[in-house]
């Protein structure tokens, strides 16, 4: 028999007690994925307004898949304003950002190679970056949690290059007694320390980042005052650049010069002149692929780009107010009062929704044409993404995770032993929410055992 709505499974109750969390901290909703008319299998504080953290990305990504379609792509047009002769352009190049969430290192390389294919090796002028498609407020990357160099705090940008982050790859060279450091993308005008001393022989890997004693706060240089343990082998460390506003200009110039290109002017911000036609455009991966990155790895800035694109398509320019309006109307037509969306990524203290509201949205998603793309984008419990370390039954669920200082959450679909599919939404709001992972694992296991 289905459990009554107020019932809490004993294993979940026990996990709450071990975590020293009160029942009142938990909001949970479990229901049949296909039959929205059937009574909930479990509902506890399901209508309470709570902070869902990154589970809010489910709302943004499902709305985008529904409104834009899984095959939607972003274009980044490139304009050549001048005459090309003998490998030289006398004039400017314009790169116009249109919100591509994944214009990463490799694709920037391809864009500039295509520019060279126009017969351009020397630009006797400027490279102008047009970022006017997004009208977003000034952003302090340290405001949210005091961690300005964490890539998850990167702000959206119509011309977002490599998430405004530098990827440092450390490779030990025991013969030379150093670890060699590679930096991607190359940034013009930045002095990068190319090697780090190796730690004493036999040193454990441990917290190798702290051991490097890195000073990454200057836009002009990177300094390591510590050492790197050889036992760590090759490691990769992505870091948000200390001057986000200047990142794109340094990255474009650095990559252009690494490709052998010459530039007599500078890289600067500006707008494409009216009437100028693009020489070519580069096209992003599909929305279905972008959504997979957003949800599997909880990429905040990509989620905000997807959110803002809803406004860009509707209004011709992207603002957060415009995105909230588009998504809010989409929700209102289906389920009534919309969530408090804030930036659409869940990286917010103000975002609010309820477990039941998310559960009903997921029930609609399960029977929608874009269900396969949405489900495939979610981490698989105990297998990959942000759920790879889950202790619940491996492979039993596709769930989006969420975590903030006082929030721990999961939401998505559980594949039960009976063959049925359930939506599960579980959100914990409490100062000790960080201890709640076993509670969520217990709920996943209970939902999967329905025989």
What report would you give on this structure?
With 451 residues, the protein is of the alpha/beta class. It has two domains: 10-71 and 286-448, Beta-lactamase (3-Layer(aba) Sandwich), CATH 3.40.710; 74-284, D-Ala-D-Ala carboxypeptidase C, peptidase S13 (D-tyrosyl-trna(Tyr) Deacylase, Chain: A, 3-Layer(bba) Sandwich), CATH 3.50.80.20. 28% of the residues lie in helices and 23% in strands. It has eleven helices and 19 strands. It has helices spanning 10-18, 57-68, 105-116, 208-212, 244-258, 287-297, 300-315, 320-335, 355-366, 371-376, 437-448, and strands at residues 26-32, 42-44, 75-85, 88-96, 122-124, 127-130, 165-173, 178-184, 191-192, 195-197, 214-215, 221-224, 235-240, 262-263, 267-269, 280-283, 397-404, 407-415, 421-429. Strands 3, 4, 5, 6, 14, 15 and 16 form a seven-stranded mixed beta sheet that branches. The protein has a five-stranded antiparallel beta sheet with strand order 2-1-19-18-17, with helices on both faces. Strands 10-8-7-13 form a four-stranded antiparallel beta sheet, with no helix packed on it. A hairpin with a 4-residue loop joins β7 (165-173) and β8 (178-184). α1 runs antiparallel to α11 and α7 crosses α8. The protein is globular.
Please supply descriptive tags for the structure shown above.
disordered N terminus, D-tyrosyl-trna(Tyr) Deacylase, Chain: A, 19 strands, 451 residues, 2 domains, alpha/beta
């Amino acid at each position: 028999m289905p459990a009554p709505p107020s019932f809490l499974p004993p294993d979940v109750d026990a996990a709450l007690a071990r975590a020293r969390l009160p029942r009142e901290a938990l909001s949970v909703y479990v229901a049949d994925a296909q039959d929205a008319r059937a009574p909930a299998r479990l509902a506890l504080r399901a209508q309470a307004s709570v902070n869902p953290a990154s589970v809010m990305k489910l709302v943004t990504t499902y709305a985008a898949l529904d409104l834009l379609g899984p095959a939607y792509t972003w274009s980044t047009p490139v304009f050549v304003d001048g005459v090309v002769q003998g490998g030289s352009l006398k004039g400017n190049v314009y790169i116009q950002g249109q919100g591509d969430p994944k214009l990463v290192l490799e694709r920037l390389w391809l864009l500039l190679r295509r520019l060279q294919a126009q017969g351009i090796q020397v630009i006797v002028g400027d490279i102008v970056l047009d970022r006017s498609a997004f009208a977003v407020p000034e952003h302090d990357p340290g405001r949210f949690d005091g961690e300005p160099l964490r890539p998850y705090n990167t702000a959206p940008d119509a011309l977002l290059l490599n998430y405004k982050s530098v990827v440092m790859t450390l490779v030990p060279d025991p013969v030379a007694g150093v670890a060699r450091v590679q930096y991607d993308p190359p940034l013009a005008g930045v002095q990068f320390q190319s090697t780090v001393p190796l730690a004493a022989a036999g040193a454990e890997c441990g917290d190798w980042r702290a051991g490097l004693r890195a000073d990454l706060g200057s836009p002009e240089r990177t300094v390591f005052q510590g050492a790197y343990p050889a036992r760590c082998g090759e490691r990769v460390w992505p870091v948000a650049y200390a001057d986000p506003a200047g990142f794109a200009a340094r990255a474009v110039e650095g990559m252009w010069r690494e490709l052998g290109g010459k530039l007599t002017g500078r890289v600067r911000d500006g707008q494409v002149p009216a009437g100028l036609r693009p020489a070519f455009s580069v096209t992003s991966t599909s929305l279905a692929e972008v959504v997979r990155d957003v949800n599997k790895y909880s990429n905040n800035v990509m989620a905000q780009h997807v959110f803002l694109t809803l406004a860009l398509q509707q209004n011709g320019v992207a603002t957060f107010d415009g995105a909230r309006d588009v998504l809010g109307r989409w929700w209102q037509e289906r389920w009534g009062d919309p969530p408090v969306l804030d930036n659409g990524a869940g990286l917010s203290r103000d975002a609010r929704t309820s477990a039941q509201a998310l559960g009903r949205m997921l029930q609609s998603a399960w029977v929608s044409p874009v269900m396969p793309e949405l489900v495939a984008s979610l981490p698989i419990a105990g297998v990959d993404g942000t759920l790879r370390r889950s202790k619940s039954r491996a492979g039993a669920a596709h769930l989006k995770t969420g975590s903030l200082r006082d929030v721990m959450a999961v939401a998505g679909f559980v594949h039960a032993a009976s063959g049925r599919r359930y939506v599960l939404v579980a959100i914990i709001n409490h100062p000790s929410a960080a201890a709640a992972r076993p509670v969520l694992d217990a709920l996943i296991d209970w939902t999967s055992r329905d025989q």
